[in-house]
Amino acid sequence: MTSFEEAETEETVTCLHMTFYHPCQEEKMMFRCLNFCKREQVRADEMAKFGRDSSVCRYNLMDSRVSRIQFALQFYRKLHSSEYCFEIKNLSKRTKLTVNQTELGYLNKIDLPWRCIICFGDYQILAEIQEGESVDYFETHLHLAEAPVLQERSLPSLQPVPESGISSSIFLCQDKSPTEMDENEP
Q: Residue 55: inside a domain, yes or no?
């Protein structure tokens, strides 16, 4: 056998891609301590913390309006499953955190959807999970957005869109209740 044949099978690594945006980034440089465009390994048993306190947070945001520890991400495996996930927890007593449209108060936590937008204050972070198999660590890959991620990217709609292409939420906004109709009617 050759050394190639005897080599261990290479594991794929779960990677969390995060694209950061703040409208004042050019003037205030609040992302200057983040390592963009280079993957970073994080041990699976560590919490990836984001905030302004460099002694506690792995990812520092240089802004006095950001909490000492704003939020944390925990990598875990679902019970009785081989699926790996991230959990996001708001650690700010002052600022609510939203994940898509779910608002998290202090110490609230939820599973991070595979693709979502995290917001607090004027900060917008597009988070996208690239699945992997490694149990020892995961990677983060940070990016800087020049335009707001809320406008730049469209997230998949949480509501089903009928074949007509017209969402029922349009009708609900007009205070009309949806009515059944034959699919052959114009």
A: yes
Whether the predicted pLDDT of 181 surpasses 70:
no
Residue 5, classed as helix, strand or coil, is helix
| Structural domain that includes position 72 | 15-149
Domain with 128 in it: what CATH number? 2.60.200.20
Q: Is the pLDDT of residue 163 over 80?
A: no
% the chain with pLDDT above 70:
75
Tell me how far apart the alpha carbons of residues 107 and 71 are, in angstroms, rounded to a whole number. 9
- Torsion of Cα atoms, 42 then 43 then 45 then 47, to 10°: -20
Within 10 angstroms of residue 14's Cβ, the number of other Cβ atoms is 20
Q: What is the mean pLDDT of residues 157-166?
A: 45
What residues form DSSP beta bridges with 115? 128
Domain membership flag for residue 160: no
Is residue 100 within 8 Å of residue 119, measured between CB atoms?
Answer: no
How many domains in the chain? 1
Residue 167 lies in a domain: no
Residue 29 neighbours by CB distance under 10 Å: 12
For 142-163, what is the mean pLDDT?
Answer: 66
Query: Is 157 a member of any domain?
Result: no
Secondary structure class of 88 (helix, strand, coil)? strand
pLDDT of residue 8: 60
